[in-house]
Amino acid sequence: MTVNALLEAAVLYRPEMDETCQSPLLVVGGSTAAYAATLAALQAGVKVCLVQPQLVVGGQFTAQGLPASDDGKLLTPAPLIPEDQRDPQQLLESELFALSRSQRQFRQRQRQLQPVGGQAIANPGGSWVSHLSVTPVVAAIALNEAILPFLNRGQLTLIPWADPLEVLLEQPVDGNRKVLGVRFCDRKTEHTFTVIAPITIEATDLGDLLELAELPSRVGQEGRLETGEAALPLEARPLCQQAITFCAILERSVEAGIPLQAPPGYDLEPWLLSQDFTSTFWVQAGQDWQGYSFYDINGIFRYRRLYRTQDLLEVLPTDVTVLNWATSPRGVGGGPPQPGKPLGCGNDYPFGRLVGVSRTQRQQEIQRARDRTQAFVHYLQTHGFPELNPRSDLTWTEDGIALEPYIREARRGIALTTIRHQDVAAQFFPDEVRARTFSDSVGIGQYHYLDVHPNHAEGHVELGIGHDALPFTLPLGALIPIDTNGLILSAKSIGTTHITNAAYRMHPMEWAIGEAGGHLAAFALQAGIEVRDLAWEHPRPLADPQPLTRQFQAHLTRQGIPLVWFNDISHDDPDFEAIQLLSVSGLMEAEDSKSLHFNPHNPVRRDYAAAALHQVLIQLQFPLSEIGILASASPSSLPTFIDLSPSHFAYASVEVLFAQGIVIGIGNQQFAPEQLLTHGQLVIIVSKLLPKLRPEQTSAILAEFSEDSEPVTKRDLFRVLYRLEQFILEFRQIAPSENKKGQSV
Asked: Of 733, 417, 418, 434, which is closest to residue 583 (Cα–Cα)?
């Protein structure tokens, strides 16, 4: 079956005037996150209504004209490294740990749809800033293929060309308000209609539902007292927002291309001055400047090249690029940049803002931004590059300029968790390779620096070394509004700050945000609970044997979604769930902060094994005395073992477990903390830990282990500890009364 970039009218739904629709889940917006949330919820078995402003799905990849993914360095080589010196296989393998299964399938499908020389290759477009670049049409086809089966069987209702007008709210008597649904207006028919749903996902590119509902939110750059970020000034500066960009798709044609006329006000209006533009990419090396011409392999055209005829670095006729160029120093008369001279800003539009203004002003700013890109293309065509041909067939517009601007910042909801500068920036994690691993992580992301494209408002914070970022995680609390039920935050409206949004806004992370939100909605709907009931700190009944957060995290890992950063444990690993779930709880030894490796085949020392076991027992969060274990007992005031001092990281764990008779020493008052744990010792520990187990249950937990002297590997330990955890949880939930009677389970 042939799938097109634009969905056929037969699979779409266009409500009548004043019609009210019902759906278990409503996703609002045309962002990348809106698509990912929709796909995730559909795959989880939930019916979804997606209402978006355009016909094409996918946001950044399609309507915004930027299908060259903004990947962090863990997914892409650094710029300017010759392609023949890169390892394509290593890059492909990195997607197994840095991305979810679903997102990797999308990327792989794009490679198949845009072969080069008859073969699917790692980077079809060959851009030097992106690991993966294709045309918007190819991205749209890959996206449509995944959702078309759900459209055909009626599980997905897709309503295009509609904008939200009003959020329907149930005001609280005592407690949280609740979102009941959203009223929309069809752009083409001007019909107004309403969609009612138990859960709505805010996935607009500018956080419009937050504004319409007047929900607690933040705009622009916050103040220091508001977020606790030391880099900020004391006062908030809401006018300081990121610039937007209208992307243009251009081909290097054999002959002169279709000329774009200068927009009205060219060389008169501040945002249309040709002196801002340059075709040369200048890079400073020490005291000298290196200039790369437009078609150079390190130049502007190949920066985000989307299509190439041959597997070459060289730019050839019929190659296609997306013009998405921000600040570049510009020289005088084509020469190197001069001290004190301003920077050229390409087609970034830093002259205004879209958030916190009227809809009329927003549309005015959008039109000016579009005119600026038209002016840049006109400048290039009239300054040595007449062969640049706008590819309207790749943008679904008449002039090759994208349907919508590329958005970098939205109105952000105030969530249960706010992700702050100190949770992400490298300066707060000296000598470590990860930023903060949130205990309620529902995804991972990475961009090597906090990439702010400031507008011209005064007072933008200068981060200095604080721009550098480490691989980070996505806390569940950032998706949950602080005082509103029935709503999930997504896209760029999650609980980030102006600073941290600059890393969380990138393509792979926005997909991860949407995917987590879609599964969150499905999980809550199927469990019959409010979304906030899954929050880590949310009160729950004492009888609940396992925090709902942990159940949800386990569900995510089964979908191939990583929660913790490891670069040697893929989402296809047989122990992925066990390793991810135990690690997100903090079960990582000190060396793990120095490397992204999990090192599954490394042997385990006795001290680490004792500390890991003790931590698992503590984190089960219910009294273990029912099975004869006092995991929270205090350690002895006097050391039991002469080779294990109170300052040792495993001292308390060993003392508690020894007092329970679960671990023992090797004789002569020695524990031998650095000695490797053997299979036989692990069998004894498990047997002593749960004395009421029947032999077949012990065998199920230990499975492939026998009482030999082979060392236990890290993979072995995590596998056994996770089986133990699952058994104890099941034991507590199913048969507590039998256990109290001293009977076998």
From this structure: 434
d(CA 618, CA 76): 40
Same structural domain for residues 510 and 454?
A: yes
Does residue 592 belong to any structural domain of this protein? Answer: no
**Residue 338 in this model has a pLDDT that exceeds 80:** no
Tally Cβ neighbours within 10 Å of residue 65. 31
What is the domain extent for residue 295?
244-394
* Cβ pair 716, 705 in contact under 8 A: yes
Residue 37 and residue 158 share a domain: yes
Per-residue confidence (pLDDT) for residue 340, from 0 to 100: 64
Q: What angle do CA 668, 673, 677 make, to 5 degrees?
A: 105
For residue range 647-656, what is the model confidence (pLDDT) as tens digits? 998 998 899 8
CA atoms of 239 and 708, how far apart (whole Å) = 67
- Relative orientation angle of helices 714-734 and 695-702, to the nearest 10 degrees: 140
Q: For 442-467, how does the pLDDT look when each residue is reduced to its tens digit (9 = 90+)?
A: 999 999 899 999 999 999 999 999 99
Give the ranges where 559-709 is alpha helix by DSSP (H).
Answer: 576-584, 606-619, 651-659, 679-689, 695-702
Q: How far apart are CA 586 and CA 616, in angstroms?
A: 10
**Once rounded to an integer, what is the mean pLDDT over residues 82-105?**
73
Q: What is the DSSP string of 705-722?
A: --SSSPBPBHHHHHHHHH
Token readout for 47 is 């019916």
Q: Specify whether 695 is located in the same domain as 610.
A: yes
Which tens digits make up the pLDDT trace of 533-553?
998 665 544 444 457 898 999
Characterize 144-166 residue by residue with b for buried, 16 or more Cβ atoms within 10 angstroms of its Cβ, and e for exposed: bebbbebbeeeebbbbbbbbbee
Q: Which of 510, 534, 558 is the last residue of a domain?
A: 534
Please report the pLDDT score of residue 289 as a whole number: 79
Exposure of 694 by Cβ count < 10 A (0-12 exposed, 13-18 middle, 19+ buried)?
exposed
Q: Looking at the 3D structure of the chain, how many domains does it have?
A: 3
Q: Tell me which residue of 216, 85, 98 sits closest to 567, measured CA to CA.
A: 98
Query: Among the three residues 514, 534, 554, which one is the final residue of a domain in this structure?
Result: 534
Q: What is the pLDDT of residues 326-335, one digit of tens each?
A: 766 665 555 6
Could you tell me which of 494, 478, 585, 584 has the C-alpha nearest to residue 535?
478
- How distant is the alpha carbon of residue 508 from its chain centre? 6
The tens digit of pLDDT for each residue in 709-740 reads 899 999 999 999 998 888 877 766 544 444 33
Residues 6+ apart with CB under 8 A from 280: 291, 292, 293, 294, 299, 300, 328, 330, 331, 334
The model's pLDDT over 679-694, given as tens digits with 9 standing for 90+, comes to 999 988 888 877 656 6
| Average pLDDT rounded to a whole number, residues 28-51 | 98
Please identify which residue in the block is written with the tokens 């709880």: 585
- Helix H or strand E encompassing 200: strand 199-202
Same domain, 425 and 443: yes
Query: Tokens representing 676?
Result: 């490797």
Tell whether 566 is covered by a domain: no
Give me 697's structure tokens: 């249950």
Q: Which is it for strands 156-159 and 48-51: parallel, antiparallel or unpaired? A: parallel
pTM, 2 dp = 0.93
3-state helix, strand, coil in the chain (%, to 5): 35, 15, 50
Residue 649, classed as helix, strand or coil, is coil
